[in-house]
Amino acid sequence: MIGHFKRSTRRLFALLLSIPLVILAGALLYMFLMTHLENSPRDFWTSLEWASETLTTTGYGSDSHWTHPAMILFVIFFELVGMSFYVLIFPVFFLPYFEERFEQRLPGNLPEMSGRVLIHRYGPAVDSLVEELRRVGTAFVILEQDERQARRLRDRGYDVVFGSLDEQPGMLAGVETALALITNADDHADATFIMMARERGFSGTILALAEEPLHRPAMEKIGATAVFTPSHVLGAALAARASSRISPKVEGLQLLGERIGIADFRVQAGSPLAGQRLGTLRMRARYGVTVIGQWNGGRFAPAEGPDTRVEAGAILVATGAYANLARVERLATPLRRYGPIVVAGYGAVGRKVVEMLRDAGETIIVIDDVSDPAVDVVGNVLEHATLDRAEVRKARAVVLALSNDSAGVFATAVVRDYAPDVRLIARVNLAPNVARLYQAGADFALSVGQVAGQILAHHLLGEGAVSVEQRLKLARVGPGALVGGHPWQVGIREKTATAVVAVERGTDVLVEFDQAFKVRADDVLFVCGTTASLEKYMREFGATPAERPVAPTT
To answer: According to the 3-state scheme, what is the secondary structure of 485-552?
Structure first.
């Protein structure tokens, strides 16, 4: 029966049993030593009284003088044992027991699960999903076997069930009516949970987050609907951020051939652009480029009109003829488009980043503090000597794939100070630390909770789920309601947060327009924006996708 008691109860029983044993042992030793070292024998009851007085630190009567050094050392040792009971043992054994008696008991059985999602084990990988479920009003229950974690979750207002499936398999009773199941424990515990849920008769969706990709087929075989490896998904997302070969800056830009390009510019605090409104800067009229928007704090803000302010430290995204883009370089620092990509950290996430970048044909320099055949520079990324050997200042981008969030935040600050202009991409474990990375100087930061939450929310909630990042797209559409108007007329940005960046007329692709230019019915427009803003443009101006292929002139 003791095996079924709580840990604190077992500790209390052990303490209560140990106290008389320690007193008895002390009394017997005291009798022996007093007889052979002090030549002053004591009877058992006198010795027992001495041991209890010493252990409880209540003091002695007349029996308080010893002469033999070994005897004195024994008395001192036993006094320290008594002090340890008060200072160390009682807080560890007694306090948890009484805290549990007065604390509200955590439920050990599932509530009515109809319409609810059951999450097995809480952690960073499901944190974003939990917030998304709360946002859309989908009820959920968290099954947690760590009591401290369970109480923290309950204090945050979550429905929590506490217990271990190994010891209490019956706690899954009622799971068959749940809306869906998500398991986020270690792979062995995930497998056990999946099998137990299926044995209980659950026939719905079970999504599992695995630590090892090789375990995915086995989990699917025993009943998981889908299995994901968040660390690998995070690695892929970081690699996509670093390389335009994996994920182009603007999807569909190749439609314009060689006539137009897109460039990123870092707006330093001292730049003439910093703090200015687009209406004041008149970038189109003065430089022949169209500002699509700006990245700031990891979020893309489309340029919504002349009142849009260019933020200091942001990355400005502009499109136009290559010669015109070059004219902007004296106003802001262009981000390097060529050079190696430096990856710091060669753990599970770093390996995936390196694998994807090498598969895409990128030149990689790997930094890690542990020697490995794939590591190019062995050293501490916080040291300038290591950054020098990795030629970080010549890099196109730096990916910080460090496993510790505190180290990641500090490394971000160090690398940003060492190479102010380099594109800096960082991974993070806990979503709350994302803001700290941006404060330290990261251009983009992704957490395992973000990428895992996006995947899980997509499968549970559909297309309405929050996306990890916004992607820019170039759409080739008919003129719609813009016939007879100017491509840069007032209202397009303000209403839809998109921009017309080029017009295909016959065999020509035009990227600059004077005031007299009018859109014709047979023109094809190239409109740039996010997926959501492009959809809004199509509705607002009655545009439809153009069918005929582009034939740009050179």
So the answer is: CCCCCCCHHHHHCCEEEEEEECCEEECCCCCCCCCCCCCEEEEEEEHHHHHHHHHHHCCCECCCCCCC
pLDDT, greater one: 393 or 454: 393
Per-residue pLDDT tens digits for 528-547: 888 888 999 999 999 998 86
Most confident stretch, 13-22, 43-52, 429-438: 429-438
**DSSP 3-state of 131:** helix
The pLDDT tens digits of the residues spanning 196-243 come to 999 999 999 999 999 888 899 999 999 999 999 888 888 888 998 899
Token digits for 47? 């010795």
Helix (H, G, I), strand (E, B) or coil at 34: helix
Q: Round to whole Å and give the CA distance between 475 and 527.
A: 5
Tracing tokens 């040291």 back to the chain, one arrives at 383
Nearest to 197 by CA among 175, 182, 217: 175
Do β-strands 140-144 and 160-162 pair in parallel, antiparallel, or remain unpaired?
parallel
Min mean pLDDT across 54-63, 162-171, 401-410, 479-488 is at 54-63
Angle at 414 between CA 413 and CA 417, to 5 degrees: 85
Spatial distance between the Cα atoms of 217 and 97, rounded to a whole number of angstroms = 44
Beta-carbon contacts of residue 513 (< 8 Å; ≥ 6 apart):
486, 487, 488, 503
Question: Could you give phi then psi for residue 515, rounded to 5 degrees?
Answer: -65, -25
**What 3 state SS string does 401-447 have?**
CCCCHHHHHHHHHHHHHHCCCCEEEEEECCHHHHHHHHHHCCCEEEE
Query: Nearest-CA neighbor of 356 among 233, 507, 443?
Result: 233
Angle between helices 44-55 and 7-36 (to 10 degrees): 130
Q: Which helix (H) or strand (E) holds 343?
A: strand 341-344
The three-class DSSP label of residue 312 is coil
Q: Are 126 and 119 in contact (CB under 8 A)?
A: yes
Q: What torsion do the CA atoms of 16, 17, 19, 21 make, to the nearest 10 degrees?
A: 170
Of the CA atoms within 13 Å of residue 504, those in its CB half-sphere come to 21
Q: What is the pLDDT of residue 97?
A: 57
CB 332 within 8 A of CB 316: yes
